[in-house]
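**Fold in tokens:**
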Amino acid sequence: MFYVILFAMVAGFLAFRLYSVLGKRTGHEQPLPKPAEERVAAAPLPRTIDLKPEVRETGSRVIEAGAENGLRAVIAADSSFDVAQFVDGAKAAYRMILEAFWKGDEETLAWLVEDDVRNAFAEAIQARKEAGHVLDNRLITIDRASIAEASVEGRTARIAVRFDADIAAVTRDGEGNVVAGSLSDAVATHDIWTFARNLRSDDPNWKLVETDEA
């Protein structure tokens, strides 16, 4: 589904990939910034919509207790929404956004996150530059990604995904010397990221609107 044509088109490719995997059916040495929390209530539940057993239970649980009602509301509002593909896309987005943040790639972040999150990332990147630090982090593995919450209010759907991951984190100074962390020892990281989309928009792209620690 995804094709890399030119290195110079990386930002556009990432945006297209996020569109494809999220948008349609078929500890850190420098903590992530946390925009203000904006919770919304779940829409009324259409009980006639059932979630597939293979989606509810696939090894570790994909949908956490309490999230099913909200997901039914999302599916009722957007019949093309696919739970399994959304979770796969969320994992891809988690990796892309983390790597862009670590590299200070604000252009790529602009494609993947909403304004409040982008501004918070930009402030953290600027502070890092002023300190003369460079992050040399690697996402080793995503052990689990599960939907923790889902809701629909008006035109907007929001889905919170819990990520349990192992990250090798190193901070270097301007000369490349390690000032914190270790690339040989991965750190267990637990995050909850919330993605949102206007369900009545022609744009099927989900964007990151909130980050928090689990």
Observations:
- The helical segments are 10-23, 53-56, 68-77, 83-103, 106-112, 115-130.
